[in-house]
């Protein structure tokens, strides 16, 4: 994004100023426009429907005043709520758009800061306009609408391997670290409040439990803020997963502590029994959340198994099941965040094996879109609520809170790392520790939790809120802005963008098996042993249930390879074709260089004439030109009839075409496959007949029955030919049964006259056989019927010699 | 008894120096060795073959062969042995030692080189110093051997694609008539340099003193 903006800046500086000015003007107008209805909406006397009467009332003293028919009327009340929501979302999106047009600003200041500032501005404008600021930081809105998309996005795309490898460390930080923070901050705050110098201040009134509650609210690292800031600094995967994982998993701790202290703050004391119950409650909350998420995840995976005929609603299942997992666990006061994470992580491998490529893209983009909008809204609302909320500033309390947060974080991280490094293979260095400590940002969750506090039990609520907001501002602004230059200064390892190569994949699997084997030889049931057992269980039972059809048995390596092939094919199709696959390292190495030169077979039974040079060239030219015509055109867009996925077909077709090319090369080398009917081999008609076009012959079913061993199932291709200009290459391979073939040759010659360049269809060498006839019949009927996705799988057969 | 103990002590100290394990770890390994060998001095391939847990491992035969491969003994010999003694057993195990930390870059390179050499030897069954296409195909085949649904074509394709990748990364400009003989050790190191072998290829239990090693279902 930055490179694009910078190139734009280089393009024409003079052009940018009016552009920017125009955008600013639009934004201002929009702000004005939004402020008024947003403000007006909350004031009690909203504009009613007006009926401008054109001609006034009827003259005279009629009792019934007949109003004139309203041509144009305003009824804001009717659409108030959706209108406001839409306006906020629009504002958020425009802001996001605006920031990226000003590249210098977005390089220095992270987006979250800018958004908070915008929120402040909007809140200020609303206040200036004299209207009441809408209570946007409603806890319901936040927890039920704004938070789930972000967490689902994070959970669905969570990199499982590094997460699992570092799970111990992450749990340590999340649980022990948060507990330490909460008690340290709460306890010390209480102490500070108590030792206030003489003048009796409000602070004396704060009991220990409210302090601890405040500590537990403020101690949790916030996933939204961490995501927002860490996304921009591109730090290496280990640190990212540590801080991010911690922010996700500490939700359970926060929930338990919050409820615990809130319950008992009213009572005033906490017994040991209740502490013990609190501990049990923590286990229940955490494990319960994970369990609920896993159940819904499995349900989603199972549902996706049957969606092969209704591809359109596949993404919906993913979203709805996840949201229900969240709501269900919130219902029981379990950890909703952990439910979402586990739901996304559990369902992902199975769902991705089942759904179409398009659905996969849809899910990705929708999740990114929603989470992006949510995040933007959250920060804006934070700004607005800051302007609005009743504040009660107390210098001591606030400054002590901020300092204590920092100190507690540093001590906690250092201590825990020291302990964990004894068990880790890849130790965490001081630089890592610094980044982890510095990356402990607080965010909107803390604010929402504070907002939820009951005023009766917590008379200090406003002071708490002020302190929370200050800490949030401090972490987001100061830490958020400085972390990027610090990362550069300390030369912390950045994220590597390397694509996973097939060699790495092979060797990762190889290593897994090797280490499992060595563990077995040593007789120690360790790490790898259990992981291997889990994998085998997964493969044997779970995959069979949750993945549809053939893909259930596909080993991971093959799945990876297919995915890679698909990606390359898509790249190629998108880049407009071309014989060479775009690769990271431009190289001239091709398959020829690797295949050992096979000696040509010596004498064979039949005469082995070579294809004359001219014909060879023609074949090659036609192949090349057809490869370039691979643009697909989407078919009808009626969502009810989205049966065949033309793009996907086109891509799978493309892969097959690639295989055909290779096959063609093999055929060229091993000429023995090209047998010739007894007719004169070099006669032009014969040669031309061999290069028949696929089109016309296809529509003659009776002809199919005659030739039972020549291009027997172009019908299968016929489907594809319909859906787009798929060039297919056909090299007709005659059988040794000459009379038949000669017969058909005539047909081909006739047909050939019609269609010259509609493409050629290629067939691999087929062994002539009796069963071909029967198979052709079957293929015919199958392919002429509904060309659903099953037509895809059938096609696999002819291509494996 | 005392004399043999003393002899063992001396042997152990030698092994500590050679392999880098601690005395405790060597003792544990010796205990396991006796279990596997049925209290004999040497173990043969048959002893390792009958370990029940290895049954499901797709690359079982490669792993067992690696123990009997002379190249893994770091003495510049090639070929394979029929039986191995405890010293050879420990030497092979030393490839899976957790890396000492902190490591300097040079040490990291050395450790990585050692472990990659072990992997290379496992693939290079022909002992000619390169992994040919056939050998690589065999590797992929073995990896996929335990999965029920195996298409031969795909296995070949994967191996070919992998080989192509190695060739493209290491020798980018080859003419159409040149032939890429096989993956040499340098190329092997090059393509796997991002995998961080030195921190991934290790067995955890060798790190901690275990007196509670499971014997599994192994019976002599």
UniProtKB/TrEMBL annotation, chain A:
Residue segments, region Disordered: 733-801
Tagged with keyword Aminoacyl-tRNA synthetase: no
CC annotations in GO: plasma membrane
The keyword Membrane belongs to this UniProt entry's keyword annotation: yes
Superkingdom to which the source organism belongs: Eukaryota
Compositionally biased spans, kind Acidic residues: 791-801
Basic and acidic residues: bias regions: 767-779
Positions of the Sodium/hydrogen exchanger regulatory region domain: 584-686
Keywords: Antiport, Cell membrane, Ion transport, Membrane, Signal, Sodium, Sodium transport, Transmembrane, Transmembrane helix, Transport
Domain Cation/H+ exchanger transmembrane: 90-487
Cited NCBIfam families: b_cpa1
Protein family according to the UniProt entry: Belongs to the monovalent cation:proton antiporter 1 (CPA1) transporter (TC 2.A.36) family.
Identification of the protein by name: Sodium/hydrogen exchanger
TrEMBL record, chain B:
Gene Ontology CC annotation, any one: nucleus
Keyword Metal-binding: yes
UniProt keyword annotation of Cell membrane present: yes
Main subcellular location of this protein, as a coarse class: other
InterPro entries: CHP3, EF-hand-dom_pair, EF_hand_dom
Residue ranges of domain EF-hand in the record: 111-146
Compartment annotation: Cell projection, Lamellipodium; Cell projection, Ruffle membrane; Cytoplasm; Membrane
One of the GO BP terms on file: cell differentiation
Membrane topology: Lipid-anchor
Protein name per the record: Calcineurin B homologous protein 3
GO MF term (any one): calcium ion binding
Keyword annotations of the record: Calcium, Cell membrane, Cell projection, Cytoplasm, Differentiation, Lipoprotein, Membrane, Metal-binding, Myristate, Nucleus, Protein kinase inhibitor
Stated family: Belongs to the calcineurin regulatory subunit family. CHP subfamily.
Classification of source organism: Eukaryota, Metazoa, Chordata, Craniata, Vertebrata
PANTHER family: CALCINEURIN B HOMOLOGOUS PROTEIN 3 (PTHR46823)
């Amino acid at each position: 994004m930055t490179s694009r903006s910078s190139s734009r800046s280089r393009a024409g500086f003079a052009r940018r100023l009016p552009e920017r000015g125009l955008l600013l003007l639009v934004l201002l107008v929009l702000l004005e426009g939004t402020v008024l209805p947003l403000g007006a909406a909350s004031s009690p006397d909203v504009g009613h429907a007006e009926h401008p009467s054109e001609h006034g009332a009827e003259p005279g003293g009629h009792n019934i005043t007949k109003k004139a028919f309203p041509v144009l009327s305003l009824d804001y009340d009717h659409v108030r709520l959706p209108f406001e929501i839409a306006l906020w979302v629009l504002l958020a999106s425009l802001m996001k758009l605006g920031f990226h047009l000003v590249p210098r600003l977005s390089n220095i200041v992270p987006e979250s800061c800018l958004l908070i500032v915008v929120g402040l501005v909007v809140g200020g404008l609303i206040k200036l306009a004299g209207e009441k600021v809408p209570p946007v930081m409603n806890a319901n809105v936040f927890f039920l609408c704004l938070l789930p998309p972000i967490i689902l996005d994070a959970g669905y795309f969570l990199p499982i391997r590094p997460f699992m490898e570092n799970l111990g460390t992450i749990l340590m930080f999340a649980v022990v670290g948060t507990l330490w923070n909460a008690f340290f901050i709460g306890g010390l705050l209480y102490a500070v409040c108590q030792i206030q110098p003489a003048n009796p201040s409000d602070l004396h009134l704060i009991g220990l439990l409210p302090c601890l509650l405040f500590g537990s609210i403020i101690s949790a690292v916030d996933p939204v803020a961490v995501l927002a800031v860490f996304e921009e600094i591109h730090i290496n995967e280990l640190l990212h997963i540590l801080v991010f994982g911690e922010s996700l998993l500490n939700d359970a701790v926060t929930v338990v502590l919050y409820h615990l202290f809130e319950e008992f703050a009213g009572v005033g004391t906490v017994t040991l029994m209740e502490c013990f119950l609190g501990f049990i409650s923590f286990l229940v909350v955490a494990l319960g959340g994970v369990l609920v998420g896993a159940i819904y995840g499995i349900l989603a995976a199972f549902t996706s198994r049957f969606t092969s005929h209704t591809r359109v609603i596949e993404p919906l299942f993913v979203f709805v099941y996840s949201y229900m997992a969240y709501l269900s666990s919130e219902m029981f006061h379990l950890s909703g965040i952990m439910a979402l994470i586990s739901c996304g992580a559990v369902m992902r491998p199975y769902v991705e094996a089942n759904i179409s490529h398009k659905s996969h893209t849809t899910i990705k983009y929708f999740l990114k879109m929603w989470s992006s909008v949510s995040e933007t809204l959250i920060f804006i609302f934070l700004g607005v609520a800051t302007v609005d909320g009743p504040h009660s500033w107390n210098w001591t309390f606030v400054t002590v809170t901020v300092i204590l947060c920092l100190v507690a974080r540093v001590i906690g991280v250092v201590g825990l790392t020291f302990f964990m490094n004894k068990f880790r293979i890849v130790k965490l260095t001081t630089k890592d520790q610094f980044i982890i400590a510095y990356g402990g940002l607080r965010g909107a969750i803390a604010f929402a939790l504070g907002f939820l506090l009951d005023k009766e039990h917590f008379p200090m609520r406003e002071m708490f809120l002020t302190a929370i907001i200050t800490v949030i501002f401090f972490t987001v602004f100061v830490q958020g802005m400085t972390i990027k230059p610090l990362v550069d200064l300390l030369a912390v390892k950045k994220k590597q963008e390397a694509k996973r190569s097939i060699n790495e994949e092979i060797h990762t699997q190889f290593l897994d098996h090797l280490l499992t084997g060595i563990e077995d030889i040593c007789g120690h049931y360790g790490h790898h042993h259990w992981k291997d057992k889990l994998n085998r269980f997964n493969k044997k039972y779970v995959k069979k249930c949750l993945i549809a059809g053939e893909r259930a048995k596909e080993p991971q390596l093959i799945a990876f390879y297919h995915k890679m092939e698909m990606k390359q094919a898509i790249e190629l199709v998108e880049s407009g074709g071309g014989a060479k696959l775009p690769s990271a390292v431009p190289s001239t190495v091709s398959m020829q260089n690797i295949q050992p030169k096979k000696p040509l077979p010596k004498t064979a039974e039949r005469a082995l004439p070579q294809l004359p040079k001219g014909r060879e060239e023609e074949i090659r030219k036609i192949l090349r030109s057809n490869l370039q015509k691979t643009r697909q055109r989407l078919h009808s867009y009626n969502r009810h009839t989205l049966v065949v996925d033309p793009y996907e077909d086109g891509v799978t077709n493309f892969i097959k075409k690639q295989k055909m090319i290779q096959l063609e090369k093999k055929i060229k080398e091993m000429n023995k496959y090209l047998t010739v009917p007894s007719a004169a081999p070099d006669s032009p008609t014969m040669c031309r007949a061999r290069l028949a076009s696929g089109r016309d012959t296809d529509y003659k079913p009776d002809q199919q029955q005659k030739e039972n061993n020549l291009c027997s199932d172009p019908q299968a291709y016929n489907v594809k030919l319909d859906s787009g200009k798929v060039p297919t290459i056909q090299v007709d391979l005659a059988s040794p049964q000459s009379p038949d073939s000669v017969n058909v040759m005539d047909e081909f010659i006739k047909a050939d006259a019609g269609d010259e360049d509609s493409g050629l269809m290629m067939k691999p060498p087929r062994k002539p056989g009796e069963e071909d006839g029967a198979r052709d019949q079957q293929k015919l009927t199958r392919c002429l019927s509904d060309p659903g996705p099953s037509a895809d799988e059938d096609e696999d057969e002819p291509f494996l010699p | 008894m005392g004399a043999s103990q003393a002899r063992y002590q001396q042997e152990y100290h030698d092994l500590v120096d050679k392999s880098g394990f601690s005395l405790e770890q060597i003792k544990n390994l010796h205990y396991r060795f006796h279990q596997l060998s049925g209290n004999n001095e040497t173990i043969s391939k048959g002893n390792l073959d009958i370990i029940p847990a290895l049954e499901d491992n797709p690359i079982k035969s490669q792993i067992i062969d690696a123990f009997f491969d002379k190249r893994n003994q770091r003495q510049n010999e090639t070929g394979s042995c029929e039986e191995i003694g405890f010293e050879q057993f420990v030497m092979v195990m030393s490839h899976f030692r957790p890396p000492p930390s902190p490591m300097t870059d040079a040490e990291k390179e050395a450790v990585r080189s050692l472990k990659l050499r072990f992997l290379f030897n496992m693939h290079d069954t022909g002992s000619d110093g390169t992994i040919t296409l056939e050998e690589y195909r065999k590797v992929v085949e073995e990896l996929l051997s335990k999965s029920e649904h195996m298409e031969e074509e795909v296995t070949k394709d994967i191996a070919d694609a992998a080989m192509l990748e190695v060739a493209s990364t290491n020798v980018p400009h080859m003419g159409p008539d040149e032939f890429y003989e096989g993956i040499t050790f340098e190329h092997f190191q090059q393509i796997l340099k991002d995998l961080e072998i030195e921190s991934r290829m290790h067995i955890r239990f060798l790190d901690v003193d275990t007196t509670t090693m499971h014997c599994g279902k192994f019976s002599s």
